[in-house]
């Protein structure tokens, strides 16, 4: 019971954190904020904005009159037009309060022209002179209709000794009806926007989340072991890239999984075969050849050979594991490449004398390199052994040292069967063998993987050139080093 409610809580938390819900909620917040902003700016501040604009407008007009007043081209008609266009009354008086120009738009209702205005005008004049900049303005109520008016008074010339006065009066329209009409309209528009916005947000959140959900479902399948699953990130670039990467990763996992299975099958096969032989020959010695020294020696020889094969395989597995998991250490020393190669070749004397192999070494120049000697020896041995194993009837093996200003390249060439083009990329893979388990050819199937890991650890370039029926050349390139001081 407790488990299921916990499970429900987790799944609710997950859906609340999902891309779809998050996108939807952000979009909804976005729309609501915009609507709120519009409401605040249109409705709440409409009145205040209107009044501020009206005041600034009236100030501009008064200043305009003041600057143009002295100009002869500025006639009464210009003033009439100004008053008419701006829906306001204008009165200009001389310093004694005698009107020199008047435009009366509102007659009785006007606060500067109305019947009771003369006392009020005197008050306004005084207030303008008292002010710091010779300007006085105020909102006033029209006593007859109760409408709001804006009065503006400005002194002409110095405010201490003015040569005249400009009076402007404009009515402040009541905005209540406009606001209520707007409010209804806004409400309708807001509602429509909300519905539309929420619809779009649901659509958008789906659009954005669908490829991610699709990829997640495929990833779940992959996690359950279905390596054939394909990721589809169609929708937008990022998800397409993610899907491509995941497809690549799942291909790699598939490859590794196949390799792991092959490896297990191959190793167990290669371990079992010599073990069976060892057991069979040991039984033979016990039951049949124990008393026959000749036969016994032959059978014991086979047992030793098979044990060697087993030991080689186990050693290779251990070497490769160490190299691959990074626990192998590299102890670099300087060495003369040519003498090292000559040293190695002495070990093949028996093979050339007994089995007719011919080794051609060309390493005249004395050059030095720096590497882990034991590991580089192993690389050279593995490559020469492969050349011996796969040289077929020809039995000629060429070991060359090619010197360039910065590097020294070692090439090991045989005239054997070569490697087909399609197999070329695979041969450095762990446990890959062209002809699986051909027992007459000695090898563990790990030789080239060990070569590859050692050369990668050293940071040396390596590769292979091969043509079927002609032979193969395996090469690697070491950085040249200065000879030691005592040389
Ligand atoms: P193996 O123990 O099988 O030789 P390696 O890792 O050394 O394992 O080599 C992997 C495979 O690469 C071999 O099985 C063989 O098919 C191919 N190969 C390696 N060296 C040569 C070569 N010199 N000529 C032809 N094929 C080669």
Report on the structure:
- The chain has 487 residues and is an alpha+beta fold.
- It folds into 4 domains: 2-46 and 178-222, no CATH class; 86-173, Beta-Lactamase (2-Layer Sandwich); 237-321, Signal transduction histidine kinase, dimerisation/phosphotransfer (DHp) domain (Helix Hairpins), CATH 1.10.287.130; 329-481, Heat Shock Protein 90 (2-Layer Sandwich), CATH 3.30.565.10.
- Helices cover 55% and strands 17% of the residues.
- The protein contains 12 helices and 12 strands.
- The chain has helices at residues 2-16, 19-44, 46-68, 76-85, 117-130, 176-223, 237-287, 293-324, 337-346, 349-355, 373-390, 447-458; strands at 89-94, 99-103, 135-141, 148-156, 164-172, 332-336, 358-362, 368-372, 396-403, 407-414, 461-467, 471-481.
- Strands 6, 7, 8, 9, 10, 11 and 12 form a 7-stranded mixed sheet that branches. It has a 5-stranded antiparallel sheet with strand order 2-1-5-4-3, sandwiched between helices.
- Helix 2 (19-44) runs antiparallel to helix 6 (176-223), helix 6 packs parallel to helix 7 (237-287) and helix 11 (373-390) runs antiparallel to helix 12.
- The chain starts with a helix and ends in a 6-residue tail after the last strand.
- Mean pLDDT is 85; it is low at 436-440.
- Adenosine-5'-diphosphate is lined by residues 386-387, 389-390, 414, 416, 419, 427, 432-434, 443-449, 472.
- Adenosine-5'-diphosphate binds next to helix 11 and helix 12.
């Amino acid at each position: 019971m407790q488990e299921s409610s916990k499970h429900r809580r987790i799944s609710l938390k997950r859906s609340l954190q999902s891309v779809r819900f998050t996108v939807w909620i952000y979009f909804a917040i976005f729309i609501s904020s915009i609507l709120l902003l519009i409401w605040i700016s249109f409705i709440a501040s409409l009145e205040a904005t209107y009044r501020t604009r009206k005041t600034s407008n009236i100030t501009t007009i008064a200043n305009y009159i003041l600057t143009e007043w002295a100009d002869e081209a500025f006639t009464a008609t210009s003033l009439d037009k100004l008053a008419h266009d701006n829906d306001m009354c204008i009165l200009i008086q001389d310093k004694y309060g005698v009107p020199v120009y008047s435009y009366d738009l509102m007659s009785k209702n006007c606060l500067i022209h109305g019947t009771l205005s003369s006392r009020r005008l005197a008050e306004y004049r005084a207030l303008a002179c008292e002010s710091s900049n010779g300007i006085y303005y105020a909102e006033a109520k029209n006593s007859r209709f109760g409408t709001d008016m804006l009065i503006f008074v400005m002194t002409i010339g110095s405010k201490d000794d003015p040569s005249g006065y400009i009076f402007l009066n404009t009515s402040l329209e009541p905005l209540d009806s406009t606001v209520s009409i707007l409010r209804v309209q806004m409400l309708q528009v807001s509602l429509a926007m909300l519905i539309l916005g929420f619809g779009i947000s649901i659509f958008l959140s789906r659009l954005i989340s669908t490829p991610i959900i699709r990829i997640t479902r495929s990833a779940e399948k992959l996690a359950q072991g279905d390596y054939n699953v394909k990721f589809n990130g169609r929708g937008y670039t990022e998800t397409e890239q993610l899907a491509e990467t995941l497809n690549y990763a799942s291909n790699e996992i598939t490859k590794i999984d196949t390799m792991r299975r092959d490896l297990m099958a191959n190793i167990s096969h290669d371990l079992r075969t010599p073990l069976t032989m060892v057991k069979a020959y040991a039984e033979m010695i016990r039951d049949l050849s124990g008393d026959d020294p000749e036969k016994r020696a032959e059978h014991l020889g086979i047992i030793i050979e098979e044990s060697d094969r087993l030991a080689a395989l186990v050693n290779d597995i251990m070497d490769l594991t160490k190299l691959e998991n990074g626990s192998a250490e590299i102890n670099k020393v300087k060495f003369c490449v040519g003498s090292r190669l000559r040293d190695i070749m002495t070990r093949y004397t028996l093979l050339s004398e007994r089995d007719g192999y011919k080794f051609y070494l060309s390493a005249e120049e004395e050059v030095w390199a720096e590497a882990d000697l034991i590991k580089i020896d192993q690389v050279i041995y593995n490559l020469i052994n492969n050349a011996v194993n796969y040289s077929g009837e020809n039995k000629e093996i060429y070991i060359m040292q090619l010197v360039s200003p910065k590097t020294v390249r070692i090439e090991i060439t045989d005239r054997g069967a070569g490697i087909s083009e399609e197999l070329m990329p695979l041969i450095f893979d762990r446990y890959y063998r062209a002809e699986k388990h051909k027992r007459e050819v000695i090898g563990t199937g790990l030789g080239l993987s060990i070569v590859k890991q050692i050369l990668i650890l050293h940071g040396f370039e390596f590769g292979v050139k091969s043509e079927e029926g002609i032979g193969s050349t395996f090469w690697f390139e070491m950085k040249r080093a200065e000879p030691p001081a005592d040389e």
